[in-house]
Design goal:
Two copies of one chain form a homodimer.
Chain A lengths: L32 E5 L9 E7 L2 E4 H6 L5 H7 L5 H4 L3 H15 L6 H6 L1 H4 E3 L4 E2 L8 E4 L3 H11 L15 E3 L5 E3 L4 E2 L2 E4 L9 E4 L3 E2 L2 E7 L18 E8 L2 E2 H7 L13 E3 L4 E2 H4 L3 E2 L18 H6 L1 E2 L2 E7 L1 H5 L5 E7 L7 H8 L11 E3 L14 H4 L17 E2 L5 E2 L7 E8 L7 E11 L4
Parallel strand pairs in A: 6-22, 8-16, 9-26
Antiparallel strand pairs in A: 1-2, 1-5, 2-3, 3-4, 6-7, 10-11, 12-15, 13-14, 13-22, 14-16, 14-17, 18-19, 20-21, 20-25, 23-24, 25-26
Chain lengths: 453, 453
C-alpha cells in the first residue's frame, strides 16, 4: 500500500484550469499516465508518454527535454512507451509523482516556468491519438468475483456452479496479448464454431450470436521478478504499477463449445479493449479499503495469500459503470443507457493476492504485463458485469430454462439479449470519497462491426 | 506446401566437411536458423542469427556485412533476432534458402569466396550460446493428438475422456510467453496448490510431486495477419515459417486442482523449453505426408479446416524421441534411457488446420508467435509423449485405481512415476526417408532443480 501523502491534498489546485472543475476526474490529485501519438508527426518521433491533467495532457518527453526531470526519471520519460516508468522502483515512482504534482500544481516548485511554456508541453486530448500504454508481453485474466463465477457457473454447469477450488485458488488463465486494442477501436464480430443444436450433430460455424462484453479492471506490472522466483504477498504491491479499465469481449456461444477442457480461446482472442489511462497505485492510495470479507463458512486463504496489510487495505473502493448505445438510439438522439453499476471492493481476491499467486510457481512477470481481474460483478442484479449475467443467458436458442431470462429493453424499445452490430459499449470507473477529489479512470469504448461476409 | 527443389538434392555436399557425415542432422539440405551470442562480445553486438551447418554455424550477419546478400534479405539478416527473416514472404524466404544453400554447398556461386573467409563467418557451436530465436509475442499450445487427449481425459475425467468438441475443434489455449526458455536452461520444480487428500479439506501448498514433461513441436508464425482478418486453410502454410522442438513442462498435481474451469495456468507457466534450431517449412518439404486418416465413424472437419492439399500433404513425417538420465545414472556412467519414440504424422490436426483455426475468429497472429502442437502421442504404449501417459498417472498418492499404473524402471533400478530433482530430459527430432539426407531438429534439454526452500 502506498502512503497517502500531500499529493492528495484536496486543496491542491492546478494551473491547468480544467483540472480544477469539480467534475473533472483528472485533477492534480490523479495524474494518470498515457501514451499518445500526434498524427502530424511521422513515425516514432510523434509518440510520447504523458500525464492527464483536466482536459489536457502534459507531454512528459517534452518536459524531460526541457530539463524538468533529472537522471533516471528523465530517461524513463523519454521512452516511447510507459515501460521505462513502469520499471521504476517504488521510491523512484513516488518521487516522479511528487515532481509531476509539483510541476502541475499552482505555486509548486518550477510550476511557473512550466506554465510559461504551456504551448510547448501541454497538448489537448483532441489533438492526439491515445495508444496502448505499453507493449504488453503477457496478458492474464483472473476470475476474481465470486458473484460472477457463481452466476456463470450456474449457467454453464448448473449441477456444479462454483467449483471446489474457487475459494482457495485465484483462478486465472493466459489471455491473448496480440489482440489488446486501445479505447475506441471498433470490434469486429467474430465467427466461430458453436455447439450443435442436437447432440451428436456437427457444430455450425457462424457469426457469433451471443457477443458480450465483460466489465473488468486490469493492473500493469511494474518491476518484474525473475523466472524461478516468487513474490511474497507482503511485497506484491511493489510490483503493481497502476490500473486501467478492461473490456474482455466474449463470444458466449463460441466459448460454450470450445472451453473444455483447456479454457476459453477463440471466444476471447478477437479483441480485448483497454482504457488509455493508467491510474497509479499511488493515486489510488486514499481509496484503499478492507479486502472482501468472506462470508461465514468460507475458508481462509492459504498463508501465502494472507497478510495483515492486504486484509486491512488490499481492496480498492473503485466504482464502475457500463453504458450501451445502439445505432438506433444514436440516430434518435437518445442518451446511452446504463446497463450496470458496481464496485471493485467486493472482489473475492485482491490485486496483491492475484499477483502473488501468479508468481507462486516461479512464473516471471515482466514490466508491462497486464493482469486483469475478471468480470466485476457484485451481489445485486444491477451490478452484474456482463450481459450473460444481466439477461441470465438471454440469447435466443440457448438450451436453458427460460424463466430467468430477462432481455434488456432499450429506450428505443429494442431488446438486447446479447450485443447487436452497431452497439457501442463503454465502461467508466472512478474513485470518490468525502473530502477527496474524484479520481477518474477515463473510459473504455468499443463499437461492434458486423462480421466479415 | 513448399516445392521440393534442388536445395534438397541428396548429392549436394557442403564445403563444411562435418555437414557431409551420414549421421549429421545438419547437412546442406537442412539449413536451420538459430540466434546466438558470442559470450566474448558485450551487449547486443555479440548477438547474431545464423544457419546450422554440420558442427558449425554460419554467421549470417557477418555474411550480410560482407555483401553476400542483397537488399531485403541482407537487412533481415542483420537483425539481432530471427523476426526479420520470419517476416519475409514466401518467395523471399525461398530465395534466401537458395542463396544460403548455394553459399554453403561445394562449387556453388560465391561458395569459394565464402569458404576462403571461413574463419570470419563460421563459428563452432562450442563457442556460442544459443538463444531463443525470437522474442515470442504470444505462445499458443494446441492439443492435437487424439491419443494424448483420450489418455489424459481417461485419467482426469474417467467418465468423459474425449469431449464432444474434440473432433471438430482444434483445441488450444493461450500459454505463457515470458517463461519460454532456450534449450539447456535448468528448470526449477514449482510449488503450488494441490488438491486436498480428503474432499472438503483445504488444499496443500507444496513442491509439485508430479512434475512431468510433454513432448511437443512448435511452429513459428512467419508473416502475420491483421486483427479482424482470417487466414484460409489454402494460405495457412504461407504463414508458417518453421518448426522447433518444445518441452511443455507440466506439474500434474497443480494442474488437476487448478484447471477447471479456465484451463491450465500455473501448472505450465513455470517453464517451457524450446530447441534453438528453427527448421524451415522449405527444409521439411520432402517429408510432407498425408494428414492423419480419421478412423471410420469420425466426422469430417468443417469446411474451413479442409483443403485437398492439406489433406494430401498437410502431415509431416517427423520422428521424435524422449530420453531421460537421472543423477544416479550420470554418476554411474549410464547412457540416457529412451522413454518414448513417436511420430508427428499421426496428429489429429495438421499445422495448417491449427493456424487457420487460430485466426478463424479474426485473432491476429504476429511474426514470431509460437504455436505448439500439444503432446505428441501415438497409439502404441511406447509412443506416449509424457510420463502421465507412460506410467498411467503413476504418482504416489493419486486417487486412481492402481492396476494400470506402471512406473518406469531406470537402469539404476530407480523407479520413476514423475520426474525427480536432478533428472535431465531431452527430446530429439528428425526426418528421414530413403534417398534423402537426414534432417535433424536438434535437441531440447532441461534438468530439474529442487524447489526453492
Amino acid at each position: 500500500m502506498r502512503p497517502v501523502d500531500e499529493t492528495h491534498h484536496p486543496d491542491r489546485r492546478s494551473w491547468v484550469e480544467s483540472a480544477n472543475r469539480e467534475d473533472s476526474g483528472f485533477p492534480v490529485q490523479n495524474l494518470p499516465f498515457c501514451r499518445f501519438e500526434r498524427p502530424g508527426l511521422p513515425g516514432r518521433s510523434g509518440i510520447a508518454i504523458g500525464t492527464g491533467i483536466g482536459d489536457s495532457i502534459l507531454d512528459l518527453a517534452a518536459c524531460a527535454r526541457e530539463g524538468f526531470f533529472s537522471g533516471e526519471l528523465s530517461s524513463s520519460l523519454l521512452q516511447p512507451t510507459l515501460a521505462g516508468v513502469m520499471a521504476l522502483d517504488v521510491p523512484a515512482r513516488i518521487a516522479l509523482r511528487r515532481r509531476i504534482s509539483d510541476l502541475l500544481r499552482e505555486s509548486g516548485p518550477d510550476s511557473d516556468r512550466l506554465a510559461a511554456m504551456r504551448d510547448r508541453v501541454l497538448v489537448t486530448r483532441e489533438d492526439v491519438r491515445l495508444l496502448l500504454p505499453v507493449e504488453v508481453g503477457d496478458y492474464t485474466d483472473f476470475y476474481a468475483s465470486v458473484f460472477h463465477a457463481t452466476n456463470v457457473g450456474s449457467m454453464f454447469r448448473p449441477d456444479n456452479p462454483l467449483l471446489p477450488n474457487y475459494k482457495y485458488v485465484p483462478i486465472g488463465y493466459h489471455g491473448r496479448a496480440s489482440s489488446l486494442v486501445p479505447d475506441g477501436t471498433p470490434v469486429r464480430r467474430p465467427q466461430g464454431q458453436t455447439a450443435p443444436a442436437t447432440e451428436g450433430d456437427p457444430p455450425v460455424r457462424q457469426r457469433s450470436q451471443q457477443l458480450d462484453y465483460e466489465l473488468e479492471v486490469g493492473f500493469y506490472v511494474g518491476p518484474g521478478n525473475r523466472l524461478g522466483e516468487t513474490i511474497s504477498i507482503e511485497r506484491a504491491e511493489d510490483h503493481l504499477f497502476g490500473m486501467s479499465l478492461v473490456n474482455d469481449w466474449s463470444a458466449r456461444d463460441i466459448q460454450r463449445w470450445e472451453y473444455q477442457p483447456l479454457g476459453p480461446f477463440l471466444a476471447k482472442s478477437f479483441a480485448t479493449t483497454v482504457s488509455p489511462w493508467v491510474v497509479t497505485m499511488e493515486a489510488l492510495a486514499p481509496f484503499r479499503c478492507q479486502a472482501y470479507s468472506r462470508p461465514q463458512g468460507d475458508p481462509e486463504p492459504l498463508p501465502y495469500l494472507l497478510s495483515d496489510t492486504d486484509r486491512r487495505q488490499g481492496g480498492i473502493d473503485l466504482r464502475l459503470a457500463v453504458f450501451l448505445s445502439s445505432r438506433q438510439m444514436r440516430e434518435q438522439g437518445k442518451e446511452p443507457v446504463e446497463l450496470s453499476r458496481g464496485t471493485f471492493r467486493d472482489m473475492y481476491w485482491t490485486p496483491a493476492q492475484m499477483l502473488t499467486h501468479h508468481a507462486s510457481n516461479g512464473c516471471n512477470l515482466r514490466t508491462g504485463d497486464l493482469i486483469a481481474s475478471g468480470t466485476v460483478s457484485n451481489q445485486d442484479r444491477h451490478s452484474r458485469g456482463c450481459l450473460l449475467e444481466l439477461t441470465w443467458d438471454g440469447g435466443p436458442g440457448n438450451p436453458l430454462p427460460g424463466n430467468r431470462r430477462t432481455p434488456i429493453v432499450l429506450p428505443t424499445d429494442e431488446r438486447r439479449s446479447f450485443l447487436e452490430d452497431g452497439d457501442e459499449v463503454f465502461i467508466t470507473g472512478w474513485c470518490e470519497a468525502p473530502g477527496r477529489r474524484r479520481i477518474g479512470l477515463g473510459e473504455c469504448r468499443g463499437i461492434i462491426l458486423p462480421a466479415d461476409a
